[in-house]
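Let us work through a complete example step by step.
Step 1: write down the sequence.
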Amino acid sequence: MEANVTRQGVLFQDLFDRPLTACFDLPDASSDGGAVLLRAADKRLGLLSSLSGLLVDRRQPGKIRHDLHGLISQRVHGLACGYPDGNDAARLKADPVHRMLVGLSPCGQDMLASQATLSRFENGFSATDLYKMGVVLCERVIARHRKRLGRRCRRINVDLDVTDDATHGAQQLSFFNGFYDSHCYLPLLGFLSFDKEPEQYLCAAILRSGNAPTKRGVLGLLRRLLPRLRTAFPQARILVRLDGGFACPELFDLLDAQKRVDYVVGMAKNKRLVSLCRGVLRSVRAQARREGATRKRYGDGLYQAGRWSAQRRVVWKAEVVHLEDRKPKDNPRFLVTNLRGSPRHVYEKIYCQRGEVENRIKELKYGLAIDRTSCTRFFANQLRVLLTATAYVLLQEVRLAAAGTALARAQVSTMRERLLKIGVLVSSSVRRLLFRMPETFAYRDEWCLIARKLGARPG
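Step 2: predict the structure and record it as tokens.
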């Protein structure tokens, strides 16, 4: 840090029995001491080195101070610690912990990259580079869980969903979307879950234009994802769960052609589908009116749309919603599936469970600001989405190590508050680095347990 600089401070004259002065003048200290857990998580995943290793640095070698690995690491760790803007680089440039995370000396003279450097970095990649990064992200996630589960895995659930990413500037391919009533992007997100584990692991994040139909990109994503899952888990059955916006003949043909792949896909209603449950719906309507409450029944049948290559099983829910002071409303729902279970089981116990990915999407939005896509170039915003997804994958690895603690199902914002945001004094010598953390830290036991699961030893 610069010498002879007046530090900012404040004076509370009458809060206590004597004046209190608060000064920001402690060198080699950080408020993100727990972020070393992210470095330990990445050591298991090998994600950051894999991402930087596939990219070609097109800058002039003689003018480079920060390599691609350092820039990716700085951005990802900053996102995980709650600094989503490139402007945050100015505030963090001398932070000893963040310097360590990118491979710099915590107490040396080398600083982190500036906002201008990060901006040039974000705008420096092509569609091919971003495609490769997306593939590597998917492969590293699959490889991690292949190593963790081995041959024990019997069922893999693949959940894809679309969310809105509101835009407020002149971003490329930002369009008005009538459904969301705003200018936006429409990212496509992919998640994996294994057997009966409650966690859905992010494996894909693809930014799309604001006027993209829901099904755009889903066929390509499944063609890349399903073979990799089959190679990694040859004995497992794969279940693909999608909502009605994804349904199209090409999707069903692709899924039917796969071996040991089940699917359950929502289907928008039409006259022919409603006719399958018309009689039951009439009976449910009378029951709801008689009892003054919402009622539903389940059933199934065979259905073939005009462009379909074959008949497929359709599971339907004949529901009549009865709300106080309102007329009863028909709410029939339909699924296309190749599963054999009872209609009620397929709908409630299998299809409806895909709703849990909404919680993961909320984490990405409100915990990591994946929708902070404020760059002008579309490809720069896609890079931001991928880097945010990378930060989320690291945090999911930390959460996996938190099994057996109160943080096993914590949201990423809670994990950041309790595991990463720790005041620390950093000292460096030839022999070792030393973090001095508060003795009274409230989550010390949980932090130490997670650190040991991520490779640390008692010391």
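Step 3: interpret the result. The mean pLDDT is 94.
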